[in-house]
Amino acid sequence: MAAVILMLVGMVLPASPVWAAGSITTSISTGPVGSSVTVSGSGFTPGVNCYAFFDTFAFGPYPAAGGSLLATIQVPKVARTGSSYQIYVGTDEVPPSVSNSVYFTITSQISIGAAVASVGDSVTVYGNGFYANSAISIYFDDAAQSTVNTDSTGSFDGASFLVPAAYRGTHQVKCRDASFFSPGVNLTILSKATVNPSSGGAGDKVTVSGAGFTANSALSFYWDDGPIAAVSATTDINGSFTAPSFNIPTDFKGSHTIKAQDVNANTATTSFSIAQKISISPASAVSGTVVTVSSSGFDAGKNITIKYNFVPVVTNPATVTTDNSGGFTATFAVPAGDTGNYTIEVYDGNNLAQATFSAIAVVKISQETTAAKPGYVGEEITLTGNGLRPNATVNIYFASATVQIETATTDGNGHFSATIKIPPSTPGDHTITMTDCLTIKSFPFFIEDKPPAVPKILSPAPDAKEDAQATFTWAAVNDPSGSNYTFQIALDKNFTKVIIEKKGLTSPEEALTAQEKLSPNKSSEPYYWRIKAIDGTSLDSGWSTAQTFNVGFVLELTGWVLYTILGLGGILLFLMGFLLGKRTAQR
């Protein structure tokens, strides 16, 4: 019977019901989905079963005791519309009777997944009572954060947004469709702090940032409740901040707390995990260098082993033990070996930390040259090196054209010293290179490019008469690359008829040999001579001005000439004696 009544009543529902029997009132006429509505009625047939309707949704049966009705219904999940919904009551009488209608207006409402959150958290929003299939904007205070679309019932589930920068306290979340805002829901923002990075070693630089504090407030910072005096910051108008970077203090291994606090005692904490760490100084050097190893974050009171290239080293102090903060400082000398990167490791029996040391070679040259400050041929240059391969052969080359000019041997610590002499070379840029077959070091070497001075002729004097084996002198030319001389004698002033040429003379004086003696000449046909200097770079001075000289007749008292003169002298002496004797006798 009830089913039939409901069917018949349902057939009436699409149209406005016609009052036939009984009348009703409702406790509220507007509200959101899920609201409880009390329906009160009278004038019904006593004892008849009544059904309360919200639009097409039926609730009941409710017996009409004494012809009166009292029923409570829940507003179903329906969309907001441009008009109101109807609430009325129908009976299971035959034919059924329908009460008058009461109009009900749907209002929108939302809820959130959590009542408290921090800046950056994701907040989930649920809503109903909006227009069907409508775009909804989700607001945090007065700023839209995200959008979602409602379904056919004007509802949506599980939409979310990220909490924007906001001061600590209560804020409102609300939603808006094309026409209306929903009532707001309170969301309490809590203080929050983060540290970046969140783990590392003592001495590492970190940055603390936070949000959800009092706006425009000075902040204090604490490390395990001890103040960090070197760090301060002030929040912005949204209660957010980023503090200046600071160094993590030396402390024991494990988790530590960093706390930020504003002027209203609002606090937030974040954790930093200290791990074992070592630092080395210097991180790059030659063998034999004393390296300082410092640590933090190890277990307290532990004996430490230090290894270089996975081999234990002798340390100072000889026994290394961590202090109460898990730290220590020790030194060791870098063992001799090849250049390259090597691992230094520290182990306390439980914890291991490593660092990379770069073993390098340092080679120095005793003089650096430039065009403004050149070197010269024959100059002695010293090369010294440290950190090379122990007991290795060092080859030293001089190039434009590569010429090996010296060989040395490193000692057991990879040290060498060698002095080289710059070989004869052209002026300008050259390179001095040394190698031990692993390390190669090159140095630029600039050889002076100034030609030597023109030699000044000293003797013989112009047009002087000289012996056939004359001696020629000139002023010495001093050149940093050393100098030699080229000497010429010619029969003409243009030196097209050179009769004597000597090269590579090292002394500023040259005497002709017996094989080079000159023949006597007429004064109208003098001999010509000249001189030029050439330095160790093959630059020459150019010829001196040609000088003239003559060679006179010279009788050589040798052989038959000498004997003839002696014979004639004897005859002359005999005649003189004879004449003197005859004159004496006549007296």
Concise synopsis of the structure shown:
The chain starts with a helix and ends with a helix. The strands form twelve sheets. Strands 18, 20, 21, 22, 25 and 26 form a six-stranded mixed β-sheet that branches. Strands 28, 30, 31, 32, 34 and 35 form a six-stranded mixed β-sheet that branches. It has a five-stranded mixed β-sheet with strand order 2-8-7-4-5. It is mainly beta and 587 residues long.
What's the arrangement of secondary structure elements?
Blueprint: H1 2-12, E1 23-26, E2 30-32, E3 36-42, E4 49-54, E5 57-63, E6 69-74, E7 85-91, E8 102-107, E9 109-112, E10 116-118, E11 122-128, E12 135-140, E13 143-149, E14 156-162, E15 169-176, E16 185-190, E17 192-196, E18 199-200, E19 205-211, E20 218-223, E21 226-227, E22 233-234, E23 241-242, E24 246-247, E25 254-261, E26 267-274, E27 277-281, E28 284-285, E29 290-296, E30 303-308, E31 311-312, E32 320-321, E33 328-333, E34 340-347, E35 352-359, E36 362-365, E37 380-386, E38 393-399, E39 403-409, E40 416-421, E41 428-435, E42 440-447, E43 457-459, E44 464-466, E45 471-474, E46 483-490, E47 498-505, E48 509-511, E49 527-535, E50 547-551, H2 559-586
Parallel strand pairs: 2-8, 10-16, 18-26, 28-35, 44-50
Antiparallel strand pairs: 1-3, 3-6, 4-5, 4-7, 7-8, 9-11, 11-14, 12-13, 12-15, 15-16, 17-19, 19-23, 19-24, 20-21, 20-22, 20-25, 25-26, 27-29, 29-33, 30-31, 30-32, 30-34, 34-35, 36-37, 37-40, 38-39, 38-41, 41-42, 43-45, 45-48, 46-47, 46-49, 49-50
